[in-house]
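Pair request: fold both.
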Amino acid sequence: MRDDDALPAKADEYGRKVSPYFDIADKEAKYKADKLFKRLRRKVGHAIGDYGMIEPNDKIMVCISGGKDSYAMLDLLLSIKRSAPIPFTLVPVHIDPGFPNTPEGVVKRHLDRVGLDYFILKRPVYEIATSKVPEGQRLCSICSRMRRGFLYSTAREIGANKLALGHHRDDILATFFLNLFYSGIMKTMPPILRTDTDDLTVIRPLAYCRESDLTTLAKLKGYELLPKGLCGFGENEERAAMLRMIRQWEKEQPKRPDIIFKALKNVVPSHLLDRNLFDFSAISQGPRVK
């Protein structure tokens, strides 16, 4: 723990003293939070199992943004850790990018209550981004790259072999449609991937969780969140449009986003057009397919 880092809260090696719930005075709210938490925990467990996200003795750096998704992810991973048949370590890390008007102590107060050793690291993301991007232009792209770079370097410094990111089902769908509509490519955020340097693994335990459920959980549990749009530019416009589209579908046709998500897990290369995935030239002449 460096001198400029937040002091760690005390906890045992496996987090067994940590409760997944903060104090909820209202009994009805506590019941709803408990029921929703268990449902989300099952989804996270299924995602971890389906994609082999966690292995024995992993040291997982849990990336904390100060938003509802990363807070919920940490709570859910802690709950799974207590009953997991294998040992693994969780280390929450928050990169403070130096956005102006950022409220002091929000993330620190949350992590103090969680009870694990953690790191809060200040990095000049905003300062560097504004010096390189012309005034008035969005910082999203360069900011994202720098924050990811700082997260990777921090993981290596603390000896983590995996990073957990808080992207959920709707993020995965939004990324798919962004690539489809704007880049002409069919790809999205995978639940698990290796970095280009092949020394770190990125996992997304919330891959099966709907954003609406995470929003409800955050309200029930009273998470103290960092405000959005601290950089002054707000949410990425194209991504926000995709998320609005998904939410509208969920209102009009509740099963549609789930069906599209299922399609991402059921790809038939022979019935698409990518010659790198399927050797169409090898198909012998036969009866016409109707």
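--- second member of the pair ---
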Amino acid sequence: MIRALCLLLVLSWPGVAQAEDLVAGLSKSRISISANFDGSEILIFGAVKRAAPAPEGQIGLIVTVEGPKNPLVVRRKDKQANIWINSAGVQVDGAPSFYAVNTSGPIDEVLDEASDAAHRITVRKAIQSVGDPEDVADPSIFTDALIRIREEANLYQLNVGAVEVSDQTLFNTSVALPANLVEGAYTSRVFLTRGGAIVAEYASIIDVEKVGLERFLYVLAHDQPAVYGLLSLAIAIAAGWGASAVFRYIQS
């Protein structure tokens, strides 16, 4: 009886019963958004660490990069009297400002529905609870519209086959970050799957922040909006006066 209890404690100890684990790294953990920032690319790489020979069967690797989540309202535009106006809307509690999913194979082969629901891996699962107002028959169409709009802006990505796996152990992939990034903490997650079920995961943080003139204007606009408004007005007046002066000089 005592021997059986000891064996149970050993098997339940963190890291002992797990035959496979992940070790991963990033090419950069901080991204600076300056006035001339036009996007960036992050290389995510690592290896599968095993305490025993690899089990039979093909492994699956999924890498996600998620930006800060923000609440928003998705509205539908209806045409009334030749004018497009906002009508019905759905409240989204939290939608990633950026979300990329890179996989080593077709998503339905490397990830099952249960694991997706538990870990919120696909973009649809990553979007937190959508409201269900009485005047909207099918709220899912609003989520579809949000996903479509952000996919067109390259803010939501699904890159099938983008994760390269060598010898069932080493892996690497790259994620392209667009120029219109939101400042904040971005989370990178790596999932190891077998038969669609997750057997190991790894997470790390990427800091995205504005620097230089971009940072100054951002802080000024949020902390002192009145000063920011006056400064914008002054710049607009100066630009208008300068353009007028140049035009008069050309005409003379």
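Observation on the second member. The first helix runs from residue 2 to 12.
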